[in-house]
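Backbone shapes recur. Consider a single case.
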Amino acid sequence: MSDNKHLDNPNPTQPKPAMSLTFQPFDHIPKLDEIGKSLHKNVSPPEQTLSALSGLALLGLGCIQSRGSLRLLMLGTGTALLGRAWTGHCPVYEELDIRRRKAALAEQGN
């Protein structure tokens, strides 16, 4: 095994580099993570609340529905609405370039 040491470090007298090629100096700043997440959100807080309540209602109705495609539709739509409420991001809004979160936050600031 000592014969393979030269493969790990070809010149053991030279120090290893201080910074790797994958070093990311800003990956540990929580404020940047928060800003990045808020930029991805496009659903206003009241819409998030409404989506959560609607999603829970549809999941509840879907659970008591006996069978059929209506049950699957309720469960699927309820799950999608809960996901929209949880993340604050709507893929439909993204495709249509609608940003309601910024408008709602601007109104709160005035």
